[in-house]
Amino acid sequence: MSAPERTAVTGVGYCVPPLLRRNDDPIFDWLRQHAPAGGNLFTGYCERRVLAPPDELSDLPKTLPDLMTPAAAAALQDAGLTSSDVDALIGDASVSEFYTPNELVLVHRGLGLSAAAWVIPVNAMAGFNTALMIAHSLVESGRCLSVLIVVGYNWTRYVSYRTHQSVSAGDGAGAVVVGRTADPSKFAVRDAATVTAPEYYGTMFTAGDRVRADDGETAHSWPYFHITAAGLVAFQEFGKKVPPELANRVLARNGLTGSQVCLITHQASRVLLNAWCVAVRPAQYPDTLERYGNMVGANVPVNLAFFKDQITTDHVLTLALGPEQGATAVLLSRGS
Questions:
Q1: Domain 6-181 maps to which CATH number in 1.10.760.10, 3.60.21.10, 3.40.640.10, 3.40.47.10?
Q2: Strand ranges (E), the chain
């Protein structure tokens, strides 16, 4: 008797640029010569992958669709599907070329998806977990047969290299396919939870600085990711403590402990990863922090794909953060 079909992650994929940026890169010279606040919070990096400059005369990836499209194609191939099978495309290109529309639509074009395939941008740093819940609901309800999720981040271009958070930044894209399968080895959404602390709103944000132009008019600098003094406090008080509390709450209500799960998380800093590891005590906790740095919202799907053949547990807990401050946790379980 064959196993019944269920809604699950049927394919995974990722893509990172070939260009390396190591700790000795000249772009970090100013930080090496100065000591702005917060340096002790951003640790654990050796290399990052970065997109080529837009004006570079080469075939290297320069834009987010250059990363997101092959990541999505890899996930479709892993799922044994083609672009014609996709009913909806959910995700985020951040930072996109325009405020709106989102460059996710260029992934739709690059893959050659049907004009009838929905494009659903999710504008959130923790957007992958959100997209996963939307995709699961769409397939579970029968509204869609196959949903493709892809997120890509190019924040190496949107940080100030006079801030310590810049040392973490890496570019990358990750993708998953959600659909129906009878394969018991595939992971399905079992539970999820979120916590939001809006009192921290405005302590971490991406925007340009207001500057006074020569003619006296107000202008703005290139947008970049800011962390205020209050944001450094949020990093410690919310970031280190709340996400693992959320993770353990989800595990407990499903009769599980950390010793039964593979934990795959946001990877802003070794400081956070160490704190979460101590609090959750997972059976496995793979990361690519030294290799790829902080790929922002792509951390979780990239690592799901990167480590797919090394996950030995029957449960995966994905943990993501946003600068609201907010945290999301999704528990995935195999069919067995």
A1: 3.40.47.10
A2: 6-15, 19-22, 47-50, 88-94, 118-121, 146-153, 172-181, 188-196, 204-207, 210-212, 218-220, 224-227, 261-265, 315-322, 326-333
pTM for the structure as a whole = 0.96
67-89 pLDDT, tens digit each: 999 999 999 999 999 999 999 99
Give the ranges where 10-54 is alpha helix by DSSP (H).
Answer: 29-33
What amino acid is encoded at 54 in this protein?
Answer: P
Q: Give the three-class secondary structure for 81.
A: coil
110: exposed, middle or buried (Cβ count in 10 Å: 0-12, 13-18, 19+): middle
Tokens of 316: 């995966």
d(CA 17, CA 19): 6
Per DSSP, the chain holds a count of helices (H) and strands (E) of 9, 15
